[in-house]
Amino acid sequence: MQRNGALYSLVVSTQNGPRKAEAIFAATLELLAEHGYDKLAIEAVAARSGVNKTTLYRWWPSKDALLAAALRDSGLFALDVPDTGSLRGDLLAVSAHILRLLTSEQTSPAVVATLTAGPRRPELGEVARSFFADRMAREEPIFARATARGELRDGVDPVLVMDLLAGAIWFRLLLRGGEAGPEFLEDAVDAVLDGVA
Questions:
Q1: Which of 4, 51, 62, 100 has the most CB atoms around its CB within 10 Å?
Q2: Global confidence as pTM
Q3: Contact 112/123 with Cβ under 8 angstroms?
Q4: How far apart are CA 127 and CA 145, in angstroms?
Q5: What percent of the chain shows pLDDT beyond 90?
Q6: 6-66 belongs to which CATH class?
Q7: Can you give the residue ranges of every domain in the chain?
């Protein structure tokens, strides 16, 4: 059936959302970085992305659902799960990705705004949990391959490994205000894999 008007062209979708999903996600993350979580609004995202707000509400019933989708599905945060042939190589590649998220001009403001608002906003905490659960699901093959190669003993908790590694990077950058270059990433990965005793 033929339909007219720009609105119809905006709601024609792919499997992952409306056609202009990446523009919507970009607008969401830009507004989050500029104004913080409290002032992030669906109407502002609609205006900046050029998408009717009814389209946004059709796909995401709240700003929390929209923010969760932006963090999970935006190309800015895409994670190509590495397969370097070793657990150490894979963890170094993931660590470099985490470092880029925390230092890139495109992603750092949104990440920092989410982390700093999270403890005061239970609904934002749920967004963060959704993001990290999705990220951990994508990282699981790293640990499955390492176990199959005999690099990792059975029973090692992948979540604990990633928490230790990512936590070291976040703490160094965001709380200590220090540098986290390649040497630091290697030291952090080795400390997690080998222990410090």
A1: 51
A2: 0.75
A3: no
A4: 29
A5: 48
A6: mainly alpha
A7: 6-66, 79-194
